[in-house]
Amino acid sequence: MASTDPVTTLDSRYSSANATATEWVRGRRELAQAEVYLLTTVRPDGRPHVTPLIAVWLDGALYFCTGPDERKARNLAENPHCTVITAGGTALDDGLDLVVEGDAVQVTDEARLRRIAGTYESKYGNEWRFDVRDGAFLNEASGVALVYEVTPVTAFGFNRAGEYSQTRWRFFV
């Protein structure tokens, strides 16, 4: 698991003159509060695959789920490198966009899965209630879903409110 206190740097090349680095505590809060994320994985032929999904932030990592036959699960089986993005709004001059880079690792421990499932239900409501069975989520409507954890290795924050800034957070294992 990565350090909870990343090295934080401001990239002045892409920041306003008086900008300051965004604190990781804000980045974490925004990752936890976001409702929609974009996951980028790599197809077997090297082309990117991007798809929207829902996710939860828990214990220093993002968690998402997908069916075992979906493109993203098949991509991750071949190459675990991925990027998860969430936008802080659609206005050009407001919000904090976040980019998290890391490896997606399948979670099969049933105690952890129950905790993650509870976080999904708390965040998204009863429609996203999952049972845990055989190392995966189970939902009446959608069937079996594999659960993945992405612990940040590097993350970026693009602040568009007030002074524009680009912050990099580097985590060390």
Automatic annotation (TrEMBL):
Residues 29-128 form the Pyridoxamine 5'-phosphate oxidase N-terminal domain. GO terms for molecular function: coenzyme F420 binding; oxidoreductase activity, acting on the CH-CH group of donors. Keywords: Oxidoreductase. GO terms for cellular component: cytosol. It comes from the Bacteria. It holds the Pfam family PNPOx_N. This is Pyridoxamine 5'-phosphate oxidase. It comes from Phytohabitans rumicis.
